[in-house]
């Protein structure tokens, strides 16, 4: 199927990009170019991924930072490797203590939702296992942008302003003053085109590079985080940081029409995309712009997501095995619930037994799918004094219901929304893909994979195509250029469709596929300042 501008009147005039020696696709041009710079210096796709990721903490701080979490899928020497670099809640915290403080849910801001940041450990693990350059060399472009400054891009500037307005309204108290000193030094967010810099951020990146992240977890930076937490009644301690290590995990997959689709296992919710595709593959999709296609996609996703929210947690706390949730038998049971009308799904019962995304590839066959996030723009609203580190608020995804597998507890990882994806066929790499954007992510993964496999869209077309998002019960949000006839037909089937003018809610994706000729083919997100740097 070819892209039809009459069906998709999105103002993206990007062509798919081809390359040979290397490719970096991400949401910010300066970061993409930083990754390419590392490739040209002799680094591989893993070095380029970490360089890009480090640069993104500087040039797109509205979506990620040093104080967040990271997940990655790495293809190297014919094998796919998974890295879970998300952190647990501090040991001192518990649902009981929070309830005694009068909390009925996990707050968005302040110390309560702060879990151990995993990003520095993730960078270190990736470079130690697969990198060719030194850590200091790899973070050097990010250090330069933090120290010398850079011109803020359009999308980042807009998101910065929105975050500033929210934080100015909601962050009350002395503990939050460092956020405003760091990210709004002139009493406002920087505008697009204005220069922003952070010497504290530069020094922190240098320290992480020189010590291979040891200073963050067992050194000077850890001491500063500990002191800041104690000063304002937080639960985080230097012992929590010292005990942390990123975890290498076995990726999980399902086969979708001859392709293997790979995700990181829980505590991430990548298995939601796999469950949805497992359900969907029992149907024939002959035409993209057809009510049957959209209706069945949406219903499959709703069933998968409902199960995900019920069962996904820290892998050690899950009541149901991942294999059960991804089984053909369970997919068939859930598929049988899909009829002509929209349903409000309930969890099934299997048998017991701000985010950024980037993709890189090099001429040696290495490929990386990496995602990192502070969550909800800048995260908790806390910046560690003297470091430039904005701490994330990933613990907000915990619940206080002690009967739920995702209840907050010391040393436990929360349900996590950030997920990298990877595609293989017959044991060979096709390439990395991903969509950032909270609970949109598995929905974006499903739509991008179906656009690619069912409807033969190239990477750029797959990203340009209009997206939908399920938000609960029978509520569906669609982008403003979504086909009008499909909207009306969805409504007739019981879907409550809301056309959203703001496309930010529909995620930001990147794709790099390896062609049959051995070259690289990439697409980047038209909904942001995305760029593909290619060699």
Structural overview:
The chain is of the alpha+beta class and 535 residues long. The radius of gyration is 22 Å and the shape is globular. The protein is built from 18 helices and 21 strands. Mean pLDDT is 94; it is low at 1-11.
Brief summary of the model shown:
The protein is α+β, with helices and mostly antiparallel strands and 535 residues long.
Chart the SSEs and their pairings.
Elements (H helix, E strand, L loop, with lengths): L16 E3 L2 E5 L2 H12 L4 H15 L9 E8 L2 E7 L9 H6 L18 H12 L4 H14 L1 E2 L2 H17 L6 H7 L11 E2 L2 H13 L2 H5 L1 H12 L6 H5 L4 E3 L2 E5 L2 E5 L6 H11 L10 H21 L10 H4 L2 H8 L20 E7 L4 E7 L9 E2 L4 E2 L30 E5 L2 E9 L4 H13 L5 H6 L3 E5 L2 E4 L5 H9 L3 E4 L8 E7 L5 E5 L6 E4 L1
Parallel strand pairs: 17-18
Antiparallel strand pairs: 1-20, 2-10, 2-21, 3-4, 3-11, 4-7, 5-6, 8-9, 9-14, 10-11, 12-13, 14-15, 15-19, 16-17, 19-20
Helix pairs in contact: 1-2, 2-4, 2-5, 5-8, 12-13, 12-15, 12-16
